[in-house]
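Supplementary Note 3. Input sequence used for the single-chain structure prediction.
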Amino acid sequence: MGFIERLPLTDMTPFTNQQLQSIVAQLDQAIHSHDQWYKSLLRVLITHLPPEEADLLPDAHLHCRFGQWYGSEQASFIKDNPAFIALGDAHEKMHRSARKLLQRMSEGVPISPIEWDHFENTLDRVRLEFQSLRLDYSTIAKNRDPLTEAQTRGSMLVELREQNALVSRGRQDCALVMFDLDHFKRVNDEFGHAAGDAVLVSTVRSVKEVLREYDKIYRYGGEEFLICMPSTNLEEAGHVCERMRAAIAGQRIQHASSIEPLQVTASFGVAALSSRRTVEESIACADAAMYKAKSAGRNRVVVGN
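The predicted structure, written as discrete structure tokens, is reproduced below.
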């Protein structure tokens, strides 16, 4: 099974798109290895072949192909995921149950229906945890913009409605931010679309360095982005936007099509998710505030309501 390099969790999205795809591929391979182990176990139990010595060890869960990967340093890049932890627990219990079945067979003692049902239950739990872990990462990969690695609009409304429900119940404030790169068409026209792509990638990276790990940035369209900031009121969001605005303006983006580093600015509009209006209406408020920033001279933040 191949492994990806472990990276420090230094920003709100620690894995690149390529790394996410690699994680999913590794989990697919782990699921396949587990299925092969199960088929081998059934063959031993049905035909009474000698069991694998490793399957009779008290720590058998550490010796199968999946167990070796799970316990390695190379797998620790996802070690904090609750589904990963739950999978390890389920996997150990399954091997413990399988060991009892193999011992019964080796001793010539019939396996009772209760023992077999217990094993099947542990097996089902492993499969469930496998799929849960895989779903975590495949969903993130599916909803990522392939260029900027911001989230796409595919899951945006669902996630914003979840935040709006918390706002409606008085659980939290939540701010929406719409920002758009100023005069971005000039970059594409003068330096080419590859340069424009480089600007978009660098800009999203700069913004993520300002945001918290649970803030979300969506590519709303072209050079326009929407940010959801839970547990943040309008005043706080305005201050964060000033930091993002300065970070974008401070970029010096090197590109082969330009002798001098590329520089861009962005205009920001802020609005609150509110129980008094729909999510779409709140987005429209943030959009309107952004256009006020554009009309006021660009490279600035306008806080709406």
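Residues 153-303 form a domain with the Alpha-Beta Plaits fold (CATH 3.30.70.270). The chain has a mean pLDDT of 92.
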